[in-house]
Amino acid sequence: MSDDKCVDFRGDEIEVTWDGRLCIHVAECGKAKGDLFVAGREPWCKPDAATKAEVREVVERCPSGALTYRDRSGEPEAAPAENRLVVASDGPYYLTGDLEIEGAPDDMPGVRTRAALCRCGASRNKPFCDGSHEAAGFRDTGAVGEQGRGFRTAGGPLAVRPIKDGPVQAEGKLTILAGTGRVAWQGDNVFLCRCGASKNKPFCDGSHSAAGFKSDD
């Protein structure tokens, strides 16, 4: 399949769409048990090979939003009750929640609840990750040294705004998990490094200016 197009897989009760613009080949789908996704098979995805509930569950594992579904009953994918960001070791930010990503095309429905955001500075699809961190040799374990101000209750929309030639601002209640899985930071407004140069990752420290970072988004 070409990595620059969308492919629909139709079933009797549910339809699955794969968006090559967002896929970074984490393989949560391919490693799922059962015959829903089988590498090398045509078609690769057979929605009727699993129950509707199983299709929804496996598709929602996709961390980049490249996989989405349309339930024939009209029931949409529900946003998680809590906005969370995982600082992946040597990889992107994995973001889940009620997401409002500024500039995201309307034809990318998956990024309303799940997104992989570039933090190495090398992606050609900013603000989204395209896997360039591997070729760029990006290294950061995902350790988080700050705790944030916290909040009493989680949930609500999270506005994600890529700042031109600068960081990503996330405004709304957000929990950040370190690369180890530890709940590390909670707050309602944060500026996240996406140039790869900050000495206080995952937080922006202004290093993008000296690094000459250009965001092109």
TrEMBL record:
Parts of the chain that traverse the membrane: none
Protein name per its UniProtKB record: Iron-binding zinc finger CDGSH type domain-containing protein
Keyword Cell division: no
Domain Iron-binding zinc finger CDGSH type: 102-139, 178-214
Species: Imhoffiella purpurea
Gene3D superfamilies for this protein: CDGSH iron-sulfur domain, mitoNEET-type
GO CC terms, sorted: cytoplasm
A Pfam match: zf-CDGSH
Keyword Iron-sulfur among record annotations: yes
Molecular function, one GO term: 2 iron, 2 sulfur cluster binding
Species lineage: Bacteria, Pseudomonadati, Pseudomonadota, Gammaproteobacteria, Chromatiales
InterPro entries hit by this protein: CISD, Divergent_4Fe-4S_mono-cluster, FeS-contain_CDGSH-typ, MitoNEET_CISD
Protein keywords: 2Fe-2S, Iron, Iron-sulfur, Metal-binding
